[in-house]
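Hey, quick one: can you model this chain's 3D structure?
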Amino acid sequence: MSIELFAFYAFALVTVLAAGAVITLRNPVHAVLSLILTFFSTACLWLLLQAEFLGIALVLVYVGAVMILFLFVVMMLDLNLVPGREGFARYFPIAVVVAAVMLFEMLGLIGVRAEHASRALPGPDPALAAGMSNLEWIGQALFTRFMLPFEVAAVILTVAIVVAVMLTLRRREGTKHQDPSRQVMVRREDRVRLLKMKPEPRQGGRP
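Sure thing. Here's the predicted structure for all 207 residues.
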């Protein structure tokens, strides 16, 4: 078994286990950390397929931005969980495990790259065969041959955003909410009242 095939099976196993942990762990912070590991392992699989742009984009966009935003949102939710309020030390061991697995995956990618440098690649690179860079080849393929799936994915993501906003803005008993229509129709006379009062002198003769 070559090191590339071993790395593929290892990354795929970590991806499946981390994805399963996302839906089985009851602690939301641990689930978010598992989702970060899932995205990172998927990015390693993209790098094994020589799709460097997709792998780096997955790390920068999802792991570096979206998942950090999710983590802040989860930490700000009022989940009424006693273990979730015990501070940073409770989540530190899980974070160390996730970081260690990510480190081993990066070392595995370095080993695969070293093996590729020592021998010829098993197949021709389609981007090099077309005389283009990896990013240029992906852009041309995405907006020509795969234009319809790309638009369908964009519509699905838009619908998901609208549904998420609708679920967030639903009325709940015992919570404060705003009514934009009433805020727009408000008048100054309903909120501000001006009073005219005569000054009264203080004790000692000063006004």
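One thing worth noting: The longest helix spans residues 92-118.
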